[in-house]
Specification:
This protein has ten helices and eleven strands. It has 382 residues and is α/β, with parallel strands linked by helices. The protein has a domain of 236 residues: Vaccinia Virus protein VP39 (Rossmann fold, 3-Layer(aba) Sandwich). α1 links the parallel β1 and β2. The mean pLDDT is 93.
Amino acid sequence: MKIKLATVFSGIGAIEFAIKRLKLDHEIVFACDNGERDVTYDIEKEREIVRNLNSIDEKRKYVDNLYSSITSSKNYVEQSYLANYPQCSKNRYFQDVVLLDGRDFRNQVDLFVGGSPCQSFSSVGFQAGLEDTRGTLFYEFARLVQEINPKVFIYENVRNLLNHDKGNTWRVIKQVFDELGYDYKFDVLNAADYGIPQTRRRLFVVGFRRDLNLNDEFEFPPIQRQLHFTMKDFSINYCAEGHMTSNNAGEIQLDNVPGIPDAKYTLSQKLYNYVMKTGTKTFVQKVEINKDIARTLLKTMGNRHRAGVDNYLSFDGTENLGSVRMLTEREAHRLMGFTDDYKIVVSRAQAYKQAGNSIVVDVLIAILRNIIDTGVFEEEGE
């Protein structure tokens, strides 16, 4: 069994890392992420130009040159991705999902994975279809499912998508998936139920191509077990950098090797006074640090929000000035299921942002195991 994988909104490669931890034979057909760079161009004009070019490489180079001409910002997500998944060559990393031509990869992908920002479909009528969602990034994901025709897809989003715009957004998305010729199931899964000490509830949709008749074979993984770890167990203080690994079954292993985090993570007096404050006249929050299960990691955690929003630690039995610190970049990645063989190659600010934007690896591992159990990736005769 060899899984042919493709991803959009690829981020730092959560599904790729899940496959790596499970030691599964796989091929990365392509990845795509623009690194949250704000770009403006004539979408219809550029899409037509790209789709009329002859080869995949011509299309990729054209879009690369387009980006070079309209932004000087670097794609830090691409930097992290290619450093960690060298089996994805640079000529199969694409900058823009809008300009990605899925026809070039039709029937070449087993598993297609992505998410998209939550956007409203308020103007879409009751008989909604794929074309009615045009102009949204969900449209691009759905369009690529249609063009690529993968055996199975995983779509991830915030759980509030189910109630967004009074439920209209989710209704439209379901109708589009129906139109694409896929049977699908969906559920909201919390990372804390799958081995990671973080409260992070996300919506997952798993769709099987209808001709495969496998949807009834798939069930979302049940809540697996009580947590074996706390947030502090994932800290550098309790497990020095390089000592969080995974075993042959893909399960996390922590070596009891204490470490010493850099003093730069300890809050200064000014930051301490802000972070530990209960709020203002109009906004009051509960100050709580050293939580066993971390709060949801935010992509803005590097900004050091108050202690009712972000996660803070202390190890001297007090919560006094000089003892309270923020999470390190490595700890943030650990709390997303990335073991210490994941290479952090970007700045602190970018590393926090990338971790906070990711999907929790261990949730994807649980989903992927159940997908594999359907036999969808097995070749005939296996």
